[in-house]
Amino acid sequence: MANIRNELKKAFQNKENAESLRDNLERMRSEKSISEEQYEPLRKEYDARLNNELAEISRMKGEIVIKLESLQGETGAYNQELSNLEVRHKIGELTLGEYQKSENRIRTKIEKIQAIISELETLRASNSSSDFSGAEDRYADMIVGLKKSNISGRTTLTEIFARSFDIYKGNPIIIVPFLLPIGWEIIGVSVILAGILGGMAGGVFFGGSDLMSLIYGGLGLGILAAIIVDIIRLSLFAIAAGWTIVMINDALSGITIDLSRSWNLTKRKILTLIVASILCWAIVNLGLMLLILPGIVLSFLLLFYEQAIMIDDKGAIGSQLSSSGFVRSNLLEAFIIFLGALIIIAIFLSAGSVLGSLMILLAMPFITVLMTLFYLDRRQ
Who wins on pLDDT, 353 or 296? Predict the structure, then answer.
C-alpha cells in the first residue's frame, strides 16, 4: 500500500511541476522575455512531461480500480462464507464455540480488507499531491494477531517468531519465489564446471600444452564463472525476497495470496532489487577480503535492505543506509535473527549440494517472513 501511495503522490508532484514550468514559460512569452525559437522546444518538452505523468496517473488509478474490484469480490465471498457458517451452526453441524471461532476469523479478514478498500478509494479520488498530506502508513496496522509487550510496548521477538511460523504454515505458496535462486544454485555448479573445462581448453588452444597452462586457464575461467553465478544467485534471492514480502503483506491484510498479482507488484522494484543486491555483494566481498570479520559485520548491517526497498520504497543506495540504521537501532534482536539464520543455513548446506539447497528452499521463506514482521514492528 505504501508503494502505491508513494508512486501516485510522486506522479502528481511531477505533473504539478510540469504544469508550473509550462505556466512560467507562458508568462515569459507573454512578457516577451523569451524568443519563439526558445519557446517552442521548451513548450513541447513540458507538454510531453505533463502528458507522460497524466498517463502514469491514469495507469496507476486503473490498477487501483482492478485491485478494488478484486478486494470487493473477496469481501463478497467472505460474507457468503459467514452465511454458510450460520446455516451450518443452525443445522447443528458446528458447535457454538466452533461457529464463533470461525466467524471471528472471517470478520477479522473482512475488517482488514475493508480498511484497505477505504484507503484505495481515497487514492482513487485523489486529484493532487496535497491530497496525500494526511495519509498514514498502514503497514504497522496490518500486523494482526501479535500481542504487545507490557514492558516495551512492542511485540516480543518470541511472539513475532510464533506469528511468522503461523503465516509460513498457513501460506505454503510463499515457497514458490525461492524456486528461482535455488534452481539457479543447482544449475550454477554446472556453469562453474563448464568454466573450468572451458578455461583448460582455452589454455590448450592458445598454445599452452603444459600442465600449468591447463591449471591457470581452468582456474581463471572457473573463478570468473563462480563470480557471475554468485551475483546472479544473490540477485535472484533479492527478487524472491521482494516477491515474498508482497505476499506477506497480503497475508497480513487477510487477502488471499495470488502469485500473478504479487509478481506484478514486485516487477516494479526488480531493477532496484538487482542493483541493491549487486552493491551488497560488492560491499560484503570487499569486507571479506579485509580479514573476513568486516565482511560479516557489513552483511549483518545490510540484512534488511530488501524490506527497505519493498516496504519503505527506498532506492538501491538508500535501502543499504536504511538497513544499517535499522540494525543499529535494534542491535541485539537483529543479531539474534542474523545469527539464527546463519546457523540454519550452515546446517542445511552441510547436508550436501542438492539436499542442502532443497532444505534452504524450505527455510528461506520462513526467514523472510520473520525478518519482515520484525522490520514492520520495529521500524515505527
Answer: 296
Cα(337)–Cα(247) distance, rounded to whole angstroms? 21
State yes or no: pLDDT of 131 exceeds 60: yes
Give dist(CA 235, CA 229) in Å, integer. Answer: 10
Reference 66, options 14, 4, 15; nearest CA is 4
Distance CA(159)–CA(186), nearest Å, equals: 35
Q: CA-CA distance, 94 to 106, in Å (whole number)?
A: 15
Q: Is the dihedral of CA 299, 303, 308, 310 positive or negative?
A: positive
202 pLDDT exceeds 60? no
Domain spans of the chain, in order of start = 2-127, 169-378
Beta bridge partners of 338: none
Region 178-183: mean pLDDT is 85
**In this structure, what DSSP letter does residue 154 have?**
S
pLDDT of residue 260: 86
